[in-house]
Amino acid sequence: GEGLLRAVVGAPTNVTVELRDKYDQPLGKTLPTDEEAALIESRLRCNLHYLNSRGDVLDTVQGAAASMGRGFLSVTFVPPRAGECLLELQLDDLPLHEAPFTVSIAEKPELRTTRFALTGEGTRGAA
To answer: pTM score > 0.90 for this model?
Structure first.
């Protein structure tokens, strides 16, 4: 389901992401070597998509993904406003949901879809 992620609008927001394979096993346990995990992590790109009520992408903010080792990533993005968001990781140019991975946000284990409402602190009238 969808979850709620609190972020300060205009300030760097950090999310810990765990990579999982298509069978929902943590990637750190299923990959045979640390080198393979590091290679995958080094090729990841992170996008934060803002969605309208129909789920269409309105605009996209690029984030930075840094490896924390063994299938965990630290993803940092600066949200310009509050709203419905979809956190998408891409392996090279392939969206991760089409690659054999899913993403779990460590702070919000229920966010398997990585779709969430971004609630902004210190903002007024954000769409």
So the answer is: no
Question: Residue 11 CB: number of other CB atoms within 10 A?
Answer: 11
- One DSSP character per residue, 55-82 reads S-EEEEEEEEEEEEETTEEEEEE--SS-
**Residue 84 resides in a domain:** yes
Give the pLDDT confidence of 59-96 residue by residue, as tens digits.
999 988 888 877 788 888 888 888 888 777 777 665 55
Q: Which tokens sit at 23?
A: 């069978």
One-letter identity of residue 124: R
Q: Residue 126 falls within a domain, yes or no?
A: no
Span 96-121, mean pLDDT?
Answer: 52
Q: What is the domain count for the chain?
A: 1
Q: Which amino acid is at 54?
A: R
CATH number at residue 43: 2.60.40.10
Q: What is the mean pLDDT of residues 36-65?
A: 83
Query: Is 26 a member of any domain?
Result: yes
| Angstrom distance (rounded) from CA 58 to CA 1 | 21
